[in-house]
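Two proteins, back to back. First:
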Amino acid sequence: MSAILMSGKELSDVLNEKMKKSVEELVEKGVIPGLAVVLVGEDPASQTYVRNKEIRAKKLGIHSVVERYPETIKESELLNVVDRLNADDQIHGILVQLPLPKQINENRILMAIDPSKDVDGFHPINMGKLFIGQPDRIPCTPYGIMKMLDHYGVELEGKRAVVIGRSNIVGKPMAQLLMMKNATVTIAHSRTKHLQELARQADILVVAIGRGHFVTKDFVKPGAAVVDVGMNRDENGKLIGDVKMDEVKEVAGFLTPVPKGVGPMTITMLMYQTIESAKQSLKADQ
């Protein structure tokens, strides 16, 4: 048996076509969705992420603004930037690229973003809405994973799900979204005892632990759907996931590859939420 590969790249291409049409419809009504990305410093990974977001936005017809600032920027100056973007009617989504320099309190910056423009879904108000079962803006990676599971027909209701990783960005919101689809969810992490045995009980296994090839076939129940959120580099600089794909694909029923698995869907959902924010602003004006 070899797992069905759940390609985020292929699904992303399908959704891109739908989003292009949504943007065209908005433009006909006089609204161009606008996304502002704020980049501080010269971190190479951040530069790459921002460039990819900019390219994707332009392909979809989204008005993309990238504001670059030196690593020496003061927190008060960055807060002024966020305030200005909050007040800009042409901007429907704001993303402050993390990490930020040590002199800046990341939470303070994220808190300053207007929740209606928080297309990353990290604002406490949006997190709170998610956790009371009334989601509005949702963290993009878990949102993208849910779209993939739905697209590939992975059944969730009544199933056992294990999420390895407890971050606010992936693990916790992932668990909540799975629960909202009536899965029975366990959150595990690096200090969980008997992790391998626990993981092997999962019908859906989501791995976001940040350790290259951590999950081997011994973690996986035959036929399970395995979602690999990891982005790591091996000793040769090759991009690898948290899951040992060559082994696991012989046991799992479904598996996301790395690359071209979860990654493309994260950017896709960022664009989707920017477009939805533009739609909501149009309704508010009518």
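And the second protein:
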Amino acid sequence: MVQANAIILYFIYLVFIMYIIFLNYSKTKRLKKMNETFLMIIHDIKNYSANIDAAGQFLLAKAYKENNSSMVKHLNIIANNIKEMNGLMESYSKSIKLAETTKENINEAEVVSLVNEAVKLCTFYARRKNITIEVDSPWSDRIVKLDKSKFIRILSNLIMNAVKYSDENGKVLISIYQDGNFINVSIEDNGKGMSENELRNVFKKYYRAEDSVDSNEINLGIGLYGSRKLARSMGGEILVESTEGKGSIFTLRIPIKASPMFSFLGIPIVLKKKDKSKPA
């Protein structure tokens, strides 16, 4: 009888331990998801911050030239606050992990307009290095179905990356074209390119390129990793080719028409209909 009671108590103890483990696992999973989303937001804020800083530096140079001491004072306050904000974001990001964002919000959109919108987000950052951003497209009003917010986030990350690793007075060329049932957007820069080791690791989480161009910039090492995750959540992909000393080409591939996405063992499955339309 005593032995039976001991076995029952032991069983209840095991069930209780398993229940506690389950609760902690569920809580940890929820917290991880929140942290991953937060880190994606931090990276996007970093891009906007870079543009604000570039615009401020442009105005600061003008204020110095015009000997406007009041404007110089206020612009320096802005610059210092941006620096503090960037440092705060970097400290918050150190212990946060990034994972795939899967929520979709698909609507019809004009692809060239979305590309131009992403370019505008990077204009001041490019101007600081006197880099020209050109868009080449066979269409002026090509309508596609996609998640506009994700599309712009991916492109702005890729464009910012191209500008960052381009030489001063260089050019970033964005080409839009159709490849079967996909819309391709290629971002080509004339920067230093990547070594074979960098190409193998460029999409890895937290990877930072060898000999980064600006050690003072925040570099969370998540831009390309996060962009590829977003692209895959849309049923697409990001491809890269690079020649060391000549530059790199990142190509975003997005399905022209996609049904709601399913997944099997974490692998996205997109059901597509044949698109008979051709570029004008």
